[in-house]
């Protein structure tokens, strides 16, 4: 059985993880299970990995690494006894920096055997234009070829192989976001706001927040908890009532749209001796 675990607040990582999982399942003739750890309640339990399972772990890149607020869970969850594993990260056309190396490193430290690793381009959650339309058909065709290479390794003595990826397995810092003038953008504490005239009180944003940080008081939304800027609430809102208006955040969005508009390519790494 193939078990796919994913963190996907806005659906981009899930799209890629499903494509890879389904392809691996078809090539191996194996059943595929999908397990989200996106919402707080889903992170209350750790994965149960059996001896015959192949593990695919998928996460978006936040500031060049595994998202900070999920890192402890990922570290505790990636525990197995020699199970083959595939690391998958998605990035919004800027860079994946150390995220893939960090994920592969955690797999190895947890007793898994990475047989492949992939970094796929998706639309940047901050922007409607950066990475728009990604992954495209070419990206997914490349992912299919990667899946075939992974299956080839799974059918050999993969325990004797090593997957080498660029970056640091134990990074200490995250990428520093910049403004349009290249000064650091300080929007760590920025939170969304809600236009009460547009809000229909449907509650969808409460249901999708991966930090469980959105509430309601006297019929109005409250944003009192931790915000990781995942954009799930903004993207899910059916009326466009939710927005991020912090000036430092908006300057950073303008910078990345200007600087990283040239399409990046996905990158793939397969275990070898």
Question: Would you kindly provide a brief summary of this structure?
Answer:
This protein has 273 residues and is α/β, with parallel strands linked by helices. It is built from 7 helices and 10 strands. It folds into 2 domains: 2-174 and 261-270, Rossmann fold, CATH 3.40.50.360; 193-245, Alpha-Beta Plaits (2-Layer Sandwich).
Task: Walk me through the structure.
The chain is α/β, with parallel strands linked by helices and 273 residues long. The protein has 2 domains: 2-174 and 261-270, 3-Layer(aba) Sandwich (Rossmann fold); 193-245, Alpha-Beta Plaits (2-Layer Sandwich). It is 29% helix and 18% strand. The chain has 7 helices and 10 strands. It has helices at residues 12-28, 68-77, 99-109, 137-154, 204-208, 232-236, 247-259, and strands at residues 2-6, 32-36, 54-60, 84-91, 113-121, 193-194, 214-217, 220-223, 242-243, 267-270. It has a 6-stranded mixed β-sheet, sandwiched between helices. The protein has a two-stranded antiparallel sheet with strand order 6-9. Helix 1 (12-28) crosses helix 4 (137-154).
